[in-house]
Amino acid sequence: MIRRRELLTGLAAFSGLITASCGWKLGDVRASSTIANGFDKLHLFTWSQYTDSNLLKTFTTQTGIKILADVYDANEVMLAKLQASGGGTYSLIYPSDYMVSKMVNKGLLKEIERKRLIGLDNLFPRFQNPEYDRKNSYSVPISWGTTGFIYNSEKITTPPQDWNYLWQNQQQLSKRITLLNDAREVIGGVLKMLGYSYNSQNESDIKQAYEKLQNLKPHIAAFSTDGWRNQIMSGDLILAMCYSSDAFQITRENPKLKYITPESGSSLWTDTIAIPITSSNLNGAYEWINFMLQPEVAASMSKRLGVATPNSAAFELLPPEIQNNPTLFPPEDILQKCERLAPVGEFEQVYERYWTKLTSG
């Protein structure tokens, strides 16, 4: 499964907020001993939206550690490169939740030394013992979101509430809707609508979801993870399945566009920071994680990138209009119904087989 989220960036103001925040100085945290031991470079492998020259410069100024960052646009790309290079020189990586589980099973991640982290107890309870990584043994969450629908409120007078809206209004929506180009997300959403788990390993459930999607297919303009943005801004589309992080940025640009998380539940995703087993600068890795755990830094990320922060102290620093924005922070009753996508092992082939049947031709 490839989950690609190229969030709209805009981090130019990031460093200004960080350097002005509450007088906190990262240089107070073991930087001198790090440099004294010769670990003056830190190599990151991350999503493009989590790096910015000003942010990296701030970290270097305060610690003396120079950041070298390579970026990727899919978890599988990151995994393949790490495996091909034997870990390479990377000291930190940014796997999504399901990829953390996969990499732990492959023995690719170093166990976190919790005593070296500052601020881990600021995480909301939901993120302190996640099912993909119990007790955050191998990863630290930095952002999260949901999957749902963005729609044009001027052209859709009755707002969608749940997955079944697509079937109930397929004539009105015909050829003006897109679904993600992602087997697990799309089939998972329909599974949820049918009362099954997003991670079902029952082929009968998958077949039922496939048949529902086959009925809807003539009305779907495309299966697209990224291409819907310009089309919904121009009015060519009136509804698109998307990630909340993407929707947040676009709804800020165009208020007539709204986002909903399906009320029967959807997928809940988290991006994390983890240390590969071959990390070349362990001290620097912990300095960076502690930097990203700072409430001021985490709050700035949430505001600039349009991602929900798992950091409760950072949440308290957000303005009310963001704290109360249901795109980033859906109501608790809906979150309780959401599920994380989990690895399903060899059963992944069943999802892919039905997905190929659905999208081919």
UniProtKB/TrEMBL annotation:
Assigned GO CC terms: periplasmic space
Subcellular location field: Periplasm
MF annotations from Gene Ontology: polyamine binding
GO biological process, any: polyamine transport
Residues annotated to bind spermidine: 98, 182-185
InterPro entries: SBP, Sperm_putr-bd
Keywords noted in UniProt: Periplasm, Signal, Transport
Stored PANTHER family: SPERMIDINE/PUTRESCINE-BINDING PERIPLASMIC PROTEIN, SPERMIDINE_PUTRESCINE-BINDING PERIPLASMIC PROTEIN
Listed name of the protein: Spermidine/putrescine ABC transporter substrate-binding protein
Organism per entry: Plectonema cf. radiosum LEGE 06105
Phylogenetic lineage: Bacteria, Bacillati, Cyanobacteriota, Cyanophyceae, Oscillatoriophycideae
